[in-house]
């Protein structure tokens, strides 16, 4: 099982990595960010939009924040405007950090029951596992974005957790 320190560290890692990727993506044109590149969610922009949707969906379950509209199929096009996507990402990263900093460690020991649109079923899983999944999902899709950015000539920062500034 994970502990509170893990949740807080990963919340900050999430923000650090998003700042790096969005900064690198900012050096590209909107056309380059929207260009289909063969990833699960098509483009750099589409993948970042999906990732914001996914984080918002998990935070709605964990912290009671408003759930983003739509489902997985709509997630890549939910935030079509680059500036709006950046603003929403920055705001949600702050929400994730505030949630992590205020989390009662006993919350992690409980189960969460929710309806999963992906599984088309009601599921119950340990909260610590779901939090781990959220951070793993972020890392997975940020890796895709990092690759697409590099292929497009942008230069994201290092991704090693051990090199994260304190």
Number of helices: 6
Strand order of the largest sheet: 1-2
Q: Could you spell the SSE succession in H and E letters? A: HHHHHEEH
Measured between the Cα atoms of the first and last residue, the distance is 24 Å
Question: What would the average pLDDT be, to the nearest integer?
Answer: 97
Description:
The protein is mainly α. The chain has one domain: Four Helix Bundle (Hemerythrin (Met), subunit A) (Up-down Bundle), CATH 1.20.120. It is built from six helices and two strands, in the order αααααββα. The chain has helices at 4-26, 30-34, 44-63, 72-75, 82-102, 127-151, and strands at residues 111-116, 121-126. A two-stranded antiparallel ribbon has the order 1-2. Strand 1 (111-116) and strand 2 form a beta hairpin. The longest helix is centred in the last third of the chain and has 25 residues, at 127-151. It is globular.
Write the layout of secondary structure elements.
Layout: H1 4-26, H2 30-34, H3 44-63, H4 72-75, H5 82-102, E1 111-116, E2 121-126, H6 127-151
Antiparallel strand pairs: 1-2
Helix pairs in contact: 1-5, 1-6, 3-5, 3-6
């Amino acid at each position: 099982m994970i502990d509170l320190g893990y949740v807080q560290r990963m919340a900050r890692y999430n923000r650090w990595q998003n700042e790096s990727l969005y900064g690198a993506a900012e050096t590209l044109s909107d056309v380059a960010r929207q260009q289909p590149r063969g990833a699960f969610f098509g483009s750099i922009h589409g993948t970042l939009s999906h990732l914001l949707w996914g984080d918002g969906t998990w935070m709605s379950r964990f912290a009671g924040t408003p759930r983003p509209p739509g489902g997985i199929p709509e997630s890549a096009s939910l935030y079509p405007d680059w500036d709006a996507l950046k603003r929403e990402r920055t705001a949600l990263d702050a929400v994730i950090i505030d949630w992590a900093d205020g989390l009662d460690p006993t919350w992690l020991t409980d189960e969460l029951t929710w309806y999963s649109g992906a599984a088309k079923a009601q599921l119950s899983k340990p909260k610590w596992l779901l939090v781990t999944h959220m951070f793993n999902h972020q890392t997975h899709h940020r890796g895709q974005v990092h690759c697409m950015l590099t292929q497009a000539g942008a230069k994201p920062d290092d991704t090693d957790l051990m090199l994260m500034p304190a």
